[in-house]
């Protein structure tokens, strides 16, 4: 029996859950299947997480922390509002490409038949992404690059574009790269 350090088993559970979500067939993930994949009992899972919903919350927290940490970095590194919007879009699509299992969480597919508060949380995440775009585009407006009257519309368009690319990536079994031709497409959108 191997001894794991505190927090290691919890991380292993989340990593395995994310890896299981990468299955293009999208079978329902049960705690029994997750426990078998890690070679532990279901009771071990429940020592670290009170429910499967809490496991998904752990994935969502990872997504939020990563995405918004990177958005903050982009905002600090680039004063040009259009460049911020461009880089946020590239980052969001690259994140999905590097984390296919997380993409299923982002688009809500992994949350079907789970606690509805999880989907509400993902909806809030999308609202925060749109808000980040608005902030970047307001900066672009101050710089004379975007009419103020178009900030909300463009932010919504970029958010919808990213969500559509994530959807296509997941629905094609992770074959249609979300970053393919994206630089030209973002330039066209902005």
Automatic annotation (TrEMBL):
It comes from the Bacteria. This is Nucleoid occlusion factor SlmA. Coiled coil: none annotated. The gene is slmA. Keywords: DNA-binding. Residues 7-67 form the HTH tetR-type domain. One of its GO terms (molecular function) is DNA binding. Residues 30-49 bind DNA. The keyword Transmembrane does not apply. Pfam families: SlmA-like_C (PF22276), TetR_N (PF00440). The lineage of its organism: Bacteria, Pseudomonadati, Pseudomonadota, Betaproteobacteria, Burkholderiales.
């Amino acid at each position: 029996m191997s001894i794991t350090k505190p927090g290691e088993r919890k991380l292993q559970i989340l990593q395995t859950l994310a890896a299981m979500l990468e299955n293009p067939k999208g079978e329902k993930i049960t705690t029994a299947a997750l426990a078998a994949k890690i070679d532990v009992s279901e009771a071990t899972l429940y020592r670290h997480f009170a429910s499967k919903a809490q496991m998904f919350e752990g994935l969502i927290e990872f997504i939020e922390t990563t995405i918004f940490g990177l958005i903050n970095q982009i905002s600090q590194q680039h004063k040009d509002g259009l460049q911020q919007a461009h880089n946020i879009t590239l980052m969001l699509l690259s994140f999905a490409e590097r984390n296919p299992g997380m993409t299923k969480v982002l688009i809500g597919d992994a949350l079907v038949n789970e606690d509805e508060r999880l989907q509400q949380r993902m909806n809030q995440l999308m609202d925060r992404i749109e808000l980040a775009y608005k902030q970047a585009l307001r900066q672009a407006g101050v710089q004379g690059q975007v009419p103020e009257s178009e900030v909300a519309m463009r932010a919504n368009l970029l958010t919808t574009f990213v969500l559509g690319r994530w959807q296509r990536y997941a629905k094609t079994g992770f074959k249609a790269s979300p970053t393919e031709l994206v630089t030209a497409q973002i330039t066209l959108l902005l």
